[in-house]
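Contributing new records

If you add data, match the layout below exactly. Sequence lines come first and carry their own label; structure lines follow with theirs. Keep one chain per record. Anything else will be rejected by the validation script.
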Amino acid sequence: MSHRLATASLFGFLALTASPAEARKWTDTTGAYTIEAELIGFDDDHVILQRDADSELGSVPLEKLSETDRNFLKRQDAAGTARGVIDAPQLWTLRSGLKAPGKLVDYTRREVTLQRKRGHVYVNGRRFDNLPKIYQKVVPQLVGEFEGNQVADGDSLEKWLVHRKGQPVQYTVDGVVMEIESGDEYALPFFLFSENDLQVLQPGWDAWLQAHGDYDQQQDHSFELQSLAAAYQQDAAERRQIAQLQLGMQAVEAGVTSLWEVTLYPGRGVGGPPLWVVVPGRDSRVAQQNAIARNPGYVAGPVRRVSR
């Protein structure tokens, strides 16, 4: 028998809507509580689950899970599933509209020092023009926020620093650490994010800050942030897919495209049965391309039109 209220209390679920993948039944050590949930991620101490019934997230101590569940987590496919969610590409749209590609991996409080010397602007000892393009856009916004001025780009930042005559300026930044594709990490202040994003990112900040000096606790909070950010981004990707599907259906209704049923066969090295998917397309070739794009590793087979 499933005790949902007791399970929710035991597992400490957090309200966050995200798109569920394949769920399985999880059981506690007593066998009294079970839950249908998707695996989002896990480390040495906790597992992050997304409840199938309402898409809420929860952090569960591994020691509270049954032996069967703990053995499941030791399997390679479980680790692959978790890493697939955590490591999926992320794209964050900041309050200014700037799009920042990168994974959020930790909370941070760090000093950011700016100085102009020898004709160049330096950020924490690194030349501004050698920073990733995205961070070259973030730094002026940081200065504008702290100084309340009109610094908006690299040129206006340099002009502002010229007036400081070589004197460095330092800001204490509270926010998150973003890891970009190169593996480099940068601090992004909370104030750069939208209100919706902050509802997901900021709640764990106080707990992380209070755990200062306790490495294990801070690692736990960092892991929870990674899982929350990944699930939140997964939900955003799902919304984009729905929007694209709606646009496709509108095009079908307008007679611009048709719906096609495409048979897909697993390619070499891809396990699984054949698939039959319905996709929009101007013609059968475009439909095959759309079907393959949505199911990487598969090879297109027969196609038939299912709408006019």
